[in-house]
Every structure is written in structure tokens, then in C-alpha cells.
Amino acid sequence: MSLGLCSQAEGETNVLLIGHKLDHPFGTHMYLHECNLLAKCLNQNPGVSATVSNGWPSDPGLLKNVDALVFYSSPAADILLNKKNKNQAESLFERGVGYTAIHWASGANLENGPRYEQLLGGWFNFKFSAIKVDKQRLVQIDPNHPICNGWSEYDLHDEFYLQMKLSTKAKPLLKVTTKGKEEVVAWTLEREGKIKGRSFGITLGHFHPNYSIESFRRAIVNGILWTAEVKIPKTGSKVEIDSDKDMKLPPDPRKKK
């Protein structure tokens, strides 16, 4: 099932965002709501067409012209690399499609982790990683990177992932200091060889209110556009929202009426 916000068109940069049903306390991990919010932002940028899918697309046509794939979901490695989807997913990476994983989508089970590290540049698993809810300064490790265009460092309250397993080929981009230790919370990867392309991992995004922060949205949208090899203006991507309308959550569908 897909929630198409804009039909895919040739000559445009097509972005597909994938979320799914809720699996966390309401107000956190609002997968589809945030995917729709990010799609609205993406569609403000010239030549970009963003579409949202509830789960892996049942219609292969949605994947045909995709230039960038975005997951805000439960561990995306276990969706991409399961028996049903693996061949389709691997063909997308071989085609050079950009890839972004937001927050828990950076996760993988131990079996899929090594391959996911090659695709994303890093991964989360409770076997070696941990979490910490904290408010800390979000620091740009490489302020000159296009993903950092149009926003400055700021203090962020979020659920931070600790001890991520990063590839030696990944380039740390954003960090926080929590529990007295620096932790990478976003990175880039220039994929090589058969799966040549760009990937962006960002472990932020647990709490819904963070999506009301312009700099927060811009970092993510910049990252998605970077993976699609879209030139990002020095002022950053367009990420305007109607806070009253777009940040308002629908009723929790899991609650009985």
C-alpha cells in the first residue's frame, strides 16, 4: 500500500520514503507521519518528486524510476534484506540509488548487519549499541559538507544511539557528547564498486516535536538530496511547514474508540 504524494515523473529526481505502522509509544517513531512531513519538504525543492509508501511497495512500478530511497522505520536492514525484498533491494543499490536511514532504520539483526554496513556505512544493534535520552549540542564535524548547508549547531533533546558500528569507509558528519563521550549521530558513505552510490545515516529522530525544528528538518532533507546527487544551495534545502497543521498528530489508531 502506498500513500503517493506526487506521481513519479521522468526527468525529475524521484524520492521514495518508506514507513509503516506504529510500534513505539505514541509521539515517538511516528514513521508515516514524519515520512509525509519530509516528503512535503522535499517536494518544495525544484525538480524533486517525493512519494511515501506504507511498507515495502507491493507495486514494483514505484521502484522503477527511484533515485533515492529513504527509510524511517523499524530496522530497515531486516526489511531490505529479507528473502522477499532482497533481490529488488540489491538491484536498486546496483543501479546507484541513493539511500538514507533515519533513527531506528539504521538497525540490523546480526545476520544482516555486515551487509547493511556495506550499504549504509554503519548499523545499530543492542548487542554492541546502547541508547541515551539526553539534551546535547548537535555538532557539525564537517561544516563544509553540503548536508550542513543552511543550518547551524544547536542543542537537541533526542534519543541518542551510542556505540554505532561504523564502516572504516564511512565519514562521520554529526556528533554529540553524552555520558562524557563523543558519539557519531550521522555519517555519509560513498559506496564503491558494484553498488556505487551515496548513503546517509542519521540516528536522530525519536521524538515527534523535533521535526518542528527547521534545522533538524533541513539536515535530514539535505542528506536525502545529497544521496540523490542533487546540488544543495548554500542556504540549504527548502523545508517550510505549517506548524499548526503539519505537526498535529492524528489519534492513535491502536486505541479503541
Automatic annotation (TrEMBL):
Residues 36-227 form the ThuA-like domain. InterPro entries: Class_I_gatase-like (IPR029062), ThuA-like (IPR029010). Signal peptide: none annotated. PANTHER family: GALACTOSE-BINDING DOMAIN-LIKE SUPERFAMILY PROTEIN (PTHR40469:SF2), SECRETED GLYCOSYL HYDROLASE (PTHR40469). This is ThuA-like domain-containing protein. It comes from marine metagenome.
